[in-house]
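Example noted here:
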Amino acid sequence: MANFGYTLMCEQTAPCDLVDDAVRAEEAGYDFAAISDHYNPWLVEQGHSPFAWSVLGAVAYATQNLELMTMVTCPIRRYHPAVVAQQAATIGAMSQGRFTLGLGAGENLNEHIAGAWPHRTQRHEMLAEALEIIRPLLAGETVHHGGTYFDVPEARLWDRPDDGVPVVLAVSGEDSLALSKKLDGTVAVAPDASLRLPGKPAYGQVALCYGPDESECRKRALDQWRWFGLQWPVLAELPDPRAFDAASAFVTEDDVAAAVPCGPDLDRHVAAVRKYVDAGFTHVALVQIGGGHQEEFLAWSQSELLPALRADGA
């Protein structure tokens, strides 16, 4: 049986509403909540981007059993790896061990605010070195690190869960998958069985646009989600929401609706989630597109979607 998560999409929701949504997601029966960690929204129309770690602290305090994770944090530019470890350890302690740190190589959209965006090859080298700092700190070690990209003269974490914090990595190909083999699992945004590690958790994410009117949902998905089809080599490089708007200008409503189930049809939404379960993913986080439409989605999740997914054997 897979675990199902609710995505706290910072790009489309204000911070206090995100905390309320997390509490409601726990009530609705979701197993975990995944939060995006952005400085900017993908598109101006989304309209938000609060600091994910402040939201996580509030969510950890306001919930009881909901597992939490970042999906995902980049530890190579906007944050120093030692600071990422401290953030993760603090949320792990506040949640009494309910937190998993999801990491990835990041996007120019968010990371250029702290300096020039490195070439892809360099970013992967930086990510590998960041893990050499984060993992031992989370394990309770004192770290002395002098590397190519990062220096840590001396650091230890004074507050952390007794069992540490699991670390999972966003993967999209052979290089990132090889790096993830030393970690506790993988994160992917495609239902591809090759992006899993045997015997370890695999986290997927699927976008939905639920609502009673399919036509309205299709329009909302185009307005808020048309960036998603640009693929990772483009997503990682564009610098700001205006660039994403220009790059997605020729995406049509039909294009988005072909990738995102829209409207009230329960079977269509279940089928989209089922692709990840069939590919062997142990955890699937769901995104409801549209910041103002979360309560209706969570109510529907509680009454129809989650029971259907679990009855389906997912």
Q: What stands out?
A: The first strand starts at residue 3 and ends at 8. The chain has one domain: 3-311. Residues 3-311 form a domain with the TIM Barrel fold (CATH 3.20.20.30). The first helix runs from residue 15 to 28.
